[in-house]
Amino acid sequence: xxxxxxxxxxxSVPEGENLVLNCSFTDSAIYxxxxxxxxxxxxxxxxxxxxxxxxxxxxxxxxxxxxxxSGRSTLYIAASQPGDSATYLCAPLTQGGSxxxxxxxxxxxxxxx
Amino acid sequence: DAGITQSPRYKxxxxxxxxxxxxxxxxxxxxxxxxxxxxGHGLRLIxxxxxxDITDKGEVPDGYVVSRSKTENFPLTxxxxxxxxxxxxxxxSSEYRAGPYNEQFFGPGTRLTVL
Lengths: 113, 115
Known about the structure:
The complex is a heterodimer of chains A (about 110) and B (about 120).
Chain A: E1 4-7, E2 10-14, E3 19-25, E4 30-38, E5 44-51, E6 56-59, E7 62-67, E8 72-77, E9 86-94, E10 107-112
Parallel strand pairs in A: 2-10
Antiparallel strand pairs in A: 1-3, 3-8, 4-5, 4-9, 6-7, 7-8, 9-10
Chain B: E1 4-7, E2 10-13, E3 19-25, E4 31-38, E5 42-51, E6 54-57, E7 64-66, E8 76-78, E9 87-94, E10 105-106, E11 110-114
Parallel strand pairs in B: 2-11
Antiparallel strand pairs in B: 1-3, 3-8, 4-5, 4-9, 5-6, 7-8, 9-10, 9-11
């Protein structure tokens, strides 16, 4: 059974700082991994999808890396802004039957002006 | 208005009542999903559907019923609501069944309170 862990659970940084959010998963047989952003009381916004054959994926100030064999992904946010404050969720899409996303519990990021 | 919409956005009901949460997508995606999000548990899959008239159970299906008569709609019914079903419910859709291109897109959610 796939298990996903996100560390840290919460992170508070000053504006302008570069930061890294971590995601680890136990089953490396995945098709891809999605990173989502969730604002309070809102739905999930897909930020990046990184395929299992890829090592990195970039979108603007965001860069996601994937090391499938070690069961790890990181989301790098450059030059953080107060508008980046949200909860960030990772979800690998696991192979082998049900092909479902399994979510971590998220990292709550606060960027202070 | 493209994307996924959910209705109602907020619902308060009483124990034992039947409640239906609606989900509508305009992309003609084949796959649709229902999740619930609870503190301490994160997001968990309730049911999913591969196409019209094809549905399957997820991780926490007990107490829920789904149907999919049209590709664009995927309603979720709580036949007899219980307090433990108080949660935020998200609908999602994706174009592909599996594989590296499967990307899921989420609706805004329905906050359900069962008194």
